[in-house]
Give the backbone structure.
Amino acid sequence: MQILFVASEVGPWSKTGGLGDVAGALPRALAERGNEVVVVTPRHGSIDPRAAGLQPVRTALHVRGEPVALWVKRGPAPVYFVEHPHLFGSRRGLYGDGGRDHPDNAERFAFLTRAALALPGALGLRPRILHLNDWQCGLGPWLLRHEHARDPALAGARTVFTIHNLAYQGLFPKQVLPALGLPWEVFRYEAMEFFDQLSFMKAGLAFADALTTVSPTYAREILTPEGGASLDALLRHRARDLHGILNGIDVHAWDPARDPHLPAHFTPGELAGKAACKAALQREVGLPARPDVPLVGLVTRLAEQKGIDLVAAALPALLARDVQVVLLGSGDAAYEEAFARAARERPDRVAARIGFDEGLAHRIEAGADLFLMPSRFEPCGLNQMYSLRYGTVPVVRAVGGLADTVEDFDGFTRGTGFRFSEYTPQALLTATRRALDVFRDRRAWRGLVERGMAEDNSWERSAARYEALYRTLAP
Ligand code: ADP
Ligand code: GLC
């Protein structure tokens, strides 16, 4: 089946979070199953075409009369990079700079979506499925119906819209409608209007043929007023078309046996390399290189979603024990400052690296003993699955995909991590202390590590589920 997959970030070329990981891996998993998948994404300013090995594509692609240049990275699932010097090429941040969104994001991602819809006609493709991801692609289903109704390349094409995070909705003042080339009739409650603003997310939810989100538990949570970010009524209305399909992980990019970012390698049967990774990580971030002390890792966007306020509040009590904490993250300035301060105050116990560093993210996954994800909500979460594969025991709040992927340790021979429910620093602390107690019991800990490493979270099963969904839409 031909599938056109559209995403605003695609790893490893561009990534701010899990969407980049998913858009990098799922298309390849679908291609491995025999589908013809083409990916479309912007050529962000951070992507150097030469260094990335992109080739220019000769085509007559137009968006609203304007010619658009394209690059391609060939492979099992070719990735097309849409060029626009002003909207994409000259920006540093993908969605904003210095904590502020780019003011023209509506125009930027409407442009991406229109370019993606024009691509099949320009390249002679006949996709049966347009798989659109997050608010950035939310206009896709409506544009397909209204601007491509007679496009032979898209005749009969159906749309799948995947919610990676309902909290980011793509809200804009209604005054942008004319500049986007959208008629005022879309500004209705049943369409794209949301509390007197234009909502790209709502556009996707209202008009796509099928909706998916990235874990079964999150698919249930977003139907409730607590989890629905004011879109739960619409989601309940569309509940029959909504599917929770758990993300997988790229087991080639995240493989402790050959990860090029690591100083040493390991397997479930041979964990000496993990101890070497821990010592190297302690040296790298300037913590005392002690093998016996439990090392707690975090790799995260420093955003409210991630429960960083709980970590900050629990940290002093946590540090009363003999532990080390290493955090890699960037985001809210207040949290960045709080962790930088904690590291200054307790350099023997806390290391904080503020910024985005793919290599260090891998080395923390490999070198830490425990990994904290106390998220307020978590559509899926990938780091807990990377942690399991790297023998690093996750401590998670049991929400969304965290609840679907981490089983609580029963004190004997079952479970892969530690879970808690209440959103309080005390509950996080209790779960972490429970983990620290088990850490001292080498046999029990070894069992936890081995069970986690034996989990199969590869894309295979989930890619099959997407494929089955595509087939129900476009038999
Ligand atoms: P989200 O998409 O909500 O941020 P996920 O757990 O799905 O959460 O994915 C986060 C991805 O981004 C993971 O691959 C993680 O390693 C990566 N990541 C997050 N913050 C950083 C950072 N500061 N440096 C490097 N990688 C990061
Ligand atoms: C979002 C979610 C995260 C999910 C990722 C990929 O960024 O916050 O939970 O894993 O998308 O689907």
About this structure: Residues 2-248+459-473 form a domain with the Rossmann fold fold (CATH 3.40.50.2000).
